[in-house]
Amino acid sequence: MSADSAQSGGLAITGLVKRYGTVEAVAGIDLEIQRGEFLTLLGPSGSGKTTLLMMIAGFQDATAGDILLDGRSIVATPAEKRNFGMVFQGYALFPHMSVRDNIGYALSVRKRPRREIAGRVEEMIDLVQLQGMEDRLPAQLSGGQQQRVALARALAFAPPVLLLDEPLGALDRKLRIEVQAQLKDLHERVGTTFIYVTHDQEEALSMSDRVVIMQSGRIEQVGTPQELYSRPRTRFAATFLGKSNFLHRDGRVWALRPEKIDLHVGSSGDDRTTGKILSQTYFGSVLNYRVETTEFGVLEVDVDAWRGGAALRPGTVVSIGWHDEAVVPLED
Amino acid sequence: MQTLRRLNLHPGWWLVLPFLLVVMGMFLGPILNILWLSVTLPEPGLDNYAALFESEPLRRMLWTTLRICLITTVMSVILGYSIAYAMMHASGANRNWMISLLLVTFWISVLVRTFSWLMLLGRNGPVNNALMGAGLVSEPVEFMRNELGVLIGMVHYMIPYAVLPILASMQNIDNRVIAASRNLGAGGAQTFWRIYLPLTRPGIVAGAILVFILSLGFFVTPAILGGGRVLMVAEYISVQVLITLRWGTAAMLAVLLLGGVLALMFILSRLIPLSQVFGGARR
Ligand SMILES: Nc1ncnc2c1ncn2[C@@H]1O[C@H](COP(=O)(O)OP(=O)(O)OP(=O)(O)O)[C@@H](O)[C@H]1O
Ligand SMILES: [Mg+2]
User: Fold this and answer.
1) Element of type H or E holding A163
2) Phi (first) and psi of residue A16, to 5 degrees
């Protein structure tokens, strides 16, 4: 299947706008998506992620702009002709059909021969490891199993692009991490372009080739997880992906990640400033301190909990330092 | 109080108990009486029931009843489905209008409606006059005083009863399931036949059984619009009671009717909570 779906799947979005009355749900988006890429749309609630995905899928008409699949415009193509797989939030399985019929649906509406459908369904069942559940109805499956049926159903017709709208939203945390790994593995095996919507930053960081940070219907920043984390361009990008301190220096704002700060009791030569500990919070792997500094106001500092020794009490005077590369200039 | 708790009975029951007993007595008493009459009149035995297999007019009458009820059910469900579908896909304001109109027909007496049809479709009614005026027919079409008239009147009366359970089942459908079907490559017609229709089947079955049950006992409409030529079971019973005075036959038919309705209600309650059927679209 990687053979047929790898043929295509490159998307180009230009100047895409969606207006509901006076609300601009998507306010002008330009984006290139490589074939076979795992791209995540990350943004807070109401930032236009679902709207963008629905326009790509063909369930919403664009107010302006164009969507190209392998160079050809698809905005006039109805949803059922676009051949994009989609995993809906809540899965939207057909409740009256068995797992087998759900997965075979796309091929059966394409009037493929019965033998071919049966073979393909079996292949998909193996892929998502649902052996033995072929005859169950969706209501007889657990959340994680339903999610895999939804995936298999969407991939059964080897779509060039798979759209996923918060597919793990309904799962508990432990299962979510498990399924994340399975999804990533699946992506590598099938070679389909994945466009993945989430508002969970960990999910975005751990799974994606590239992440698009959205806010208010616009793209805030696009890049690999490493790029976004180490070189956020705006204040919003710096806070939405991870935590950050903001330093005001030379008339600019700079971002500084809490774990890139060195903190120790007493002073040494290359310290930037000194401060007093206001509070400390224990998170298992890290200790978080809030430090009142003389030059930069209150800074958050993360320290490896096991390396840092005993927790420092509030009121302790500490000195603080960081490498030059640790601070990143922001645009706004 | 102690005993009440042990009986696990809400104290409120004691308040309604006297009325409950009166109603039950006045309701169950006559029913049992009819059951009794059907096996004792004119003489003890199952003769009345045997007549079902022997009497030609009785069989013809039952067949007429069954045929008319089935046609009414099919027509009402098909039309009701279309109306419910249109309601689901109308804009908010239009939908409210449609629901009001549907409920208004609920409130108009069956007698008024039957006579309206008689006037509208009679030999000198506006419909026949218009048809003749337009030169489409040379003499009035016989809409009334036949089976066609009965069917028109009954279907008209029954449509709201079909619409409400169907509408309720349509409202239960998750839009994303329909979107998923289109996304998987199914066009409008395929999505309808393979997803939408099967998911509304409980509503269709509930509506059909409801309409069928109500049709079985129809009296006014067949009597007036059938003009005496279309004899259905309710009118037949009335004739046995009031004119020919064969109460045994009447009681036997009443028991048959009751048994049939109870059986259908039982099937219905298996398929869908009854409160949903009678509560209509309000879930
Ligand atoms: N049908 C609609 N009519 C009017 N406004 C809409 C409609 N659909 C979405 N919007 C608005 O468009 C904006 C973007 O909505 P969208 O559903 O795309 O957000 P989202 O990023 O998917 O949010 P979430 O993470 O909560 O799912 C929101 O402000 C929303 O209120
Ligand atoms: Mg959304």
Assistant:
1) strand A161-165
2) -75, 130
pLDDT number for residue B92: 85
Phi-psi label, residue B48: left if phi above 0, alpha if psi -120 to 50, beta otherwise: alpha
pLDDT at site A90: 86
**Extents of the domains making up chain B:** 59-108+143-277
Pairing status of strand A286-293 against strand A273-282: antiparallel
Give helix A173-190 / helix A143-155 axis angle, nearest 10°: 20
Whether A4 shows a pLDDT value over 80: the answer reads no
* pTM to 2 decimal places: 0.80
Q: Does domain B59-108+143-277 have CATH number 2.60.120.260?
A: no
DSSP state of A312: P
Q: What CA–CA distance (Å, rounded) separates A141 from B173?
A: 19
User: A133 C-alpha to center of ligand 2: Å?
Assistant: 30
d(CA A143, CA A124): 18
Coil, strand or helix at B134: coil
Q: What is the ipTM of this complex?
A: 0.78
Tell me the nearest-neighbour CA distance from A235 into chain B, angstroms: 36
Q: Is A18 touching ligand 1 by the criterion CB < 6 Å? A: no
**Model pLDDT for residues A168-213, shown as the tens digit of each residue:** 887 788 888 888 888 898 899 888 999 999 988 888 998 999 999 9
Q: Is A226 in the pocket of ligand 1 (CB under 6 A)?
A: no
Cα–Cα distance between A66 and A55 in angstroms, integer?
A: 10
3-state class (DSSP) for residue A212: strand
Token pair listed for B99 = 């629901």
**What local confidence, expressed as pLDDT, does residue A48 receive?**
93
CA gap A156, A7 in Å, rounded: 16
- The pair phi, psi for residue B106, each rounded to 5°, is -60, -35
CB B204 within 8 A of CB B81: yes
What spacing in Å lies between the alpha carbon of A177 and ligand 2's midpoint? 20
